[in-house]
Amino acid sequence: MTTETAGDSGAGTDAPVAVNGESELDELVASGDVVLADFHADWCGPCKALEPVVERIAETTAATVAKVDVDANQQLASSYGVRGVPTLVLFAGGEQVEQVVGAQPEPQLRALVEEYSG
């Protein structure tokens, strides 16, 4: 369960991308593709439970999954109104389109991502 900076599938990434700072997230979002940002914390139980779901979504959908540690990126989390973790923010076409708070079941997250994936 490692977080990588790039996948080797050639079509986007197949593992979550660790994001450190607003410029890195902005760069991913600016690609215009679907980006699911997982705002999480190491100490958060529901975040740990959600991790394998997020990894499967990264591996099996066209979306790029960004992992944002809220403790290391407090200003970034604040700028997206993250008050609790996990918070998932979905971007499509360079714009924020959805925000979901709390651990979500995989089918619900997958449907949300696929709704914007083309």
UniProtKB/TrEMBL annotation:
Region annotation Disordered: where it falls in the sequence: 1-20
Keyword set, alphabetical order: Disulfide bond, Electron transport, Redox-active center, Transport
Database matches in Pfam families: Thioredoxin
Domain Thioredoxin: residue ranges: 4-118
GO cellular component, one term: cytoplasm
A GO MF label: protein-disulfide reductase activity
SUPFAM superfamilies: Thioredoxin-like
NCBIfam families documented for this protein: thioredoxin (TIGR01068)
Protein name in UniProt: Thioredoxin
Organism expressing this protein natively: Halosimplex pelagicum
Lineage: Archaea, Methanobacteriati, Methanobacteriota, Stenosarchaea group, Halobacteria
Gene it is expressed from: trxA
